[in-house]
Write a structure and sequence with these properties.
The complex is a heterodimer. Chain A is mostly helical. Helices cover 72% and strands 0% of the residues of chain A. Chain A has 10 helices and no strands. In chain A, helix 1 packs antiparallel against helix 3 (93-120), helix 3 (93-120) crosses helix 4 and helix 6 (188-225) packs antiparallel against helix 9 (309-326). Chain B is α+β, with helices and mostly antiparallel strands. Helices cover 31% and strands 30% of the residues of chain B. Chain B starts with 11 loop residues before the first helix and ends in a 5-residue tail after the last helix. Classes of the chains: A mainly alpha, B alpha+beta. Chains A and B meet through helix 7 and helix 8 of A and helix 2, strand 8, strand 11, strand 22 and helix 9 of B. Chain A: This is ABC-type transporter.
Chain lengths: 343, 542
């Protein structure tokens, strides 16, 4: 077995720390964007409305009530992003900084993850530290790729926030120096099973953020219908609850297929390593629970009375199960999957 | 509430059954059962489970004398074979069958029928497009419909041209039948997986066997340390193979600062014989690389040390000689061991203690293991004499010695002290009860031997399920209608509408793609060859 390059391993850890810091900066930029650009947009809208009103007053002498109606109409219908989620013309400097720093941070993180793989002469996903760092890289990459086509910058503070949490969890919660794999993990199924699990989890992370936003947006829509005050003004950057639900559903459908594959590949590997393809080990139980919850989510979308808010809750519960499966089950439950690397 | 006013109609027996059936097979019930299944699976990860770890369950009940028996009464130590868990998944599968069968019949009919009639107003459909072809072009309303039908067919649509010869001819088209086929295949495959699991449980078996280096195993019922047969198992199903552990090699990490001593590789070299008179064959067994022999798979699931000892009894005769399997408890192979010597005379002897492959003195003078390799192997034992209780016939755990009925000979607290043996050392027991010698050291492997006739089926059905799932989620089932007409000024007018059945995010893109196709067909400057092509196919009139 080729020996571990421990110096490179230390550089890798340094890269990952740097990436965590850079992502924190990006996270702050995205939060700044949510706070300021909603404010700016509102200011611009108000000014435009005033200008329109000012221009209209002389022209609409005959119909004096019209501007007042327009004004009251604006109060009850809150602004929201376009359904297409295409990039608009307005300049959002904070968001631009957020995206630019995220790209830089992702590159640093990629350097960290790849150098760890090179240092260990294997795929860099063999313990909790590595699941977290590789998982964070996949989440960031998926998000950045999605940004190329759609203006999903409203998700930035949520997604990059989760990336920061994952990297902090890796660096503080599960620090593990680079090492060889124990014999139980020395299998090509590690590459297949774990990589697909990480990708599926990354997609579930995105849909979790969308489902949370969907709940906030539908609450906001309800308040708009009731003619109440807009308490979540930054949500004007996000599209309607229905759009969020549809996009989350499409991503969840892909993630569910990948999760099904994870479950199957895990079963095949379990058969190779332990002599049975299914044994209700704690990790298997929770993988199954997650699968059933998301299956429930897909069915909910086709059940009258279960779309919308309820489906969003199922998606959130599913993601909480993913988190539970990854953290609590790995660390505190004994089972055959106890290779968190934590002593 | 005006509950009293509501009069329930009398359903009768058949009506009630039909009502229950329709409730059970409704989507809402299926969803409820699914979520219930998820919740019901959780306790199995919170409490120890008998099939995986019966000893832990026994210990748990002993440690929790009040709650333990109650948990047991509710089958929380056998969650996945419990009445309530089985009830949920069986109901779920009945609901699934009740849902799938009518849908399959309906889909079978849909696949054999023509696309539905063209709606009167296509502009009301979710996606709509229209274009006008200049009056001078060769395209008439009938040829345009034929063109559209051909183009749609090439795109994988089933097409049906209707109203040919009238002034508003149209074509109806539908594609994506495999979406529903995939959906049905997925659900039916789940039933297949369940049946495969049941087949494995009925006809399979699973056993455990520990083999010390140099020893061998013959595949008969008595040879197993532990054997779990399926409910329909017969002893004559065991293939008469045998295998011997020639040597077992381990490799530990000697380079890493942080993971020093972590295992890197376990390799067992086995000599196997398919039957008593077959040629012996040498094979390698590793973790993740099981051996296949006689319809079973043999897995390397554990390993440890078996110190070789010789025990002489009070009469001076050898009462036991051979390796004793010790059970490792940590990464340094700090192992517990028990030696029972029922043949010792005049009193039976028992030993309980530790084996350390590399013993070093810890802070408080107690020896601790520091390395998994045997650099300084030592035995630390207490000894007892008395009736070991092995003659009564009921099975006893070989790794546990109940010392409550025995008399202590050696112990740290006794005058004689505990027994400490380095390699090749001997110790005399007090009162002339005998002696023990540490003669050598062997390694052993713990094997799982498994026969599961259902696992091939489970693999096939779960693969089918995955393919079906992909088809049902990613194929778009959609209908397209194209209608043409001639404007008063001679232009040929074409309009089309699209309708998705179920979730289809690409409907808009499909409409755009159709527009592109039509423009290329009818408006491009070089549309003449395409026209000849069409004539050659002969779909002008249909």
């Amino acid at each position: 077995m080729p020996s571990i390059d421990e110096t490179l391993g230390q550089y890798s850890e340094l890269f990952i720390l740097l990436a965590a810091m850079a992502f924190t900066v990006a996270f702050i930029a995205f939060c700044w964007d949510l706070a300021t650009s909603s404010k700016t947009i509102r200011a611009v809208e108000n000014r435009l409305a005033e200008e329109r009103a000012a221009q209209k007053v002389p022209a609409a002498v005959g119909a004096g009530g019209a501007p007042a109606e327009a004004g009251s109409g604006q109060e009850v219908s809150f602004e929201m992003a376009d359904e297409s989620m295409d990039y608009g013309s307005e300049r959002r400097n904070a968001a631009r900084i957020g995206v630019a720093v995220s790209i830089l941070a992702t590159l640093i993180l990629a350097a960290g993850v790849v150098s760890r793989g090179i240092a260990a002469h294997r795929v860099p996903w063999g313990n909790m530290y590595e699941f977290c760092t590789t998982g964070a890289l996949v989440v960031a990459l998926v998000y950045l790729v999605a940004l190329v086509k759609k203006d999903l910058r409203f998700l930035g503070s949520f997604v990059i926030g989760l990336v920061v949490i994952m990297l902090c969890a890796a660096a503080i919660g599960f620090p593990t120096p680079v090492a060889h794999l124990v014999p139980a993990l020395q299998s090509y199924w590690l590459i297949i099973h774990v990589s697909v699990a990480v990708i599926a989890s990354a997609l579930f992370t995105l849909t979790f953020a969308m489902s949370v936003l969907q709940l906030m947006q539908s609450g906001r829509e309800a308040r708009a219908r009731a003619g109440q005050k807009d308490r979540l003004a930054f949500m004007r950057l996000a599209p309607s609850a229905l759009t969020l639900e549809n996009v989350a559903y499409r991503i969840n459908a892909v993630a569910f297929v990948l999760w099904t594959f994870t479950l199957m590949a895990g079963a095949i590997w379990a058969e190779k390593a332990w002599g049975r393809y299914w044994g209700w080990d704690t990790k298997e139980v929770w993988t199954f629970v997650i699968w059933v919850v998301y299956a429930g989510y897909l069915h909910a979308r086709a059940t009258r009375g279960w779309t919308g808010t309820r489906a969003a809750w199922l998606s959130i519960v599913g993601y909480l199960c993913v988190i539970f499966n990854f953290t609590i089950v790995n660390v505190f439950f004994s089972g055959l999957h106890s290779y968190s690397g934590i002593q | 509430m005006q509950k009293d006013d509501v009069e329930l109609p009398a359903l009768g027996f058949a009506g009630t059954l039909r009502f229950i059936w329709s409730q059970l097979t409704s989507m809402r019930t299926a969803l409820f059962l699914l979520l219930l299944l998820a919740v019901a699976a959780v306790p199995g990860s919170l409490f120890p489970q008998r099939p995986a770890n019966p000893a832990v369950v026994t210990q748990y009940i002993k440690d929790n004398p009040t709650t333990g028996p109650w948990l047991d009464r509710f089958q929380l130590f056998d969650v996945y074979s419990s009445v309530w868990f089985s009830a949920i998944y069986l109901l779920l599968f009945i609901s699934l069958i009740g849902c799938v069968v009518p849908r399959a019949i309906q889909h079978w009919k849909a696949m054999r029928s023509q696309p539905p009639r063209t709606p009167r107003r296509l502009s009301r459909l979710p996606e709509y497009g229209a274009m006008a072809l200049p009056a001078g072009s060769q395209v008439t309303r009938d040829s345009a419909v034929a063109d559209a039908a051909r183009l749609l067919k090439r795109r994988g649509y089933r097409v049906d041209v209707r109203d040919g010869g009238t002034d508003r001819p149209s074509v109806g088209a539908e594609r994506g039948f495999f979406k529903e086929v995939g959906n049905l295949v997925f659900h039916v495959s789940l039933i297949g997986v369940l049946i495969s699991v049941a087949v494995g449980g009925l006809f399979g078996y699973r056993g455990q066997k520990i083999i010390v280096e140099g020893e061998s195993f013959v595949n008969t019922l008595v040879s197993y340390d532990n054997f779990t047969p399926g409910s329909n198992f017969h002893e004559d199903r065991l293939a008469p193979y045998s295998m011997q552990l020639d040597k077992f090699e381990v490799e530990f990490d000697r380079e890493s600062q942080t993971h020093y001593g972590q295992p890197l590789d376990f390799t067992a070299t086995m000599t196997t014989k398919d039957s008593p008179d077959a040629e012996p064959e040498q094979q390698i067994l590793k973790v993740n690389e099981p051996l296949s022999i006689g319809g079973t798979n043999v897995y390397l699931v554990g390993n440890g040390y078996a110190p070789v000892v010789t025990v002489r009894d009070g009469d001076g005769n050898v009462a036991y000689q051979g390796p004793v399997v010790s059970v490792p408890n940590d990464g340094a192979y700090t192992s517990t061991m028990v030696i029972k010597v029922p043949d010792a005379k005049p009193e039976q002897l028992g030993f309980v203690g530790f084996f350390l492959p590399t013993a070093v003195e810890g802070e408080d003078g107690v020896a601790v293991g520091s390395d998994p390799d045997p650099f300084n192997p030592r035995l630390y034992l207490n000894s007892y004499y008395g009736d070991l209780g092995l003659d009564e016939g009921d099975p006893k755990n070989v790794y546990v010695l109940d010392t409550s009925e025995l008399t202590v000979l050696n112990d740290r607290k006794e005058e004689a002290g505990g027994i400490e043996l380095g390699a090749y050392e001997s110790a005399e027991l007090p009162n002339g009860m005998g002696s023990i010698t540490f003669d050598g050291l062997k390694r052993y492997v713990a094997l799982d031997i498994d026969h599961d006739p259902g696992q091939g089926g489970a693999l096939v059905f779960s693969t089918l399920a995955l393919l079906g799932l992909g088809a049902s989620l990613f194929i778009g089932r959609r209908r397209v209608w194209v209608r043409t007409g001639t404007h008063e000024d001679g232009r040929t007018m074409v309009e089309w509408g699209l309708l998705a059945r179920g979730e289809d995010p690409r409907l808009e893109a499909e409409s755009a793609a159709l527009r592109k196709l039509f423009e290329k067909e009818w408006l491009a400057a070089d549309n003449r060859p395409a026209k000849n092509d069409r004539d050659a196919v002969g779909v002008n009139e249909s």
